[in-house]
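Section 3.1: Structural characterization of target chains.
Under the original work plan, the team committed to producing a structural model for every single-chain target entering the pipeline before any wet-lab resources were allocated. The record below documents one such target. The sequence was received from the expression subgroup and is listed exactly as submitted; it comprises 168 residues.
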Amino acid sequence: MFLKYFEAAPRRVLALVAVACVAMLAFGLYLQHVVGLEPCPMCIVQRYALIVVAVVSGLTAFAYKKGLLITGSFVTLLVAGFGAFVAARQSFLQWYPPEISSCGRDFYGMIETFPLKRAIPMIFKGSGDCTKIDWTFLGGSIANWSFVCFVAIGLVMLTLMLQQARKR
């Protein structure tokens, strides 16, 4: 029954994914501006991935053609996979922190100070604050829950693509 919803209302599924991403972004901003948690570079990359997922799935929700639905779902799947990779890397760094950890620059400081060619590897290095666990829910850190959400979005997109491809 649940899978029939993907076939019957794919645009609603895409709209729900976009709304869920906006809700997660709003919660991240709440944690930053109300609770006072400062995001690390990997958190910011995950936010950008969520923004792209929200925009692409939201725009794809307006598509009436099957090819556009499949293409938009595929792009969303790729971006969600990238977000899951970054969240998994951050989770790994939190579980197995490096022995030498220094407090690194924030994302904007890296971009302003270094050329993009040097800043991008620094962002994904994950040193400093990326290993710190400031907040947990049911035993999972923000990075752990971000990974779960990205994987769930990826599974929804994969299911949606398969349902649309099977549909005649």
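Residues 66-95 form the longest helix (30 residues).
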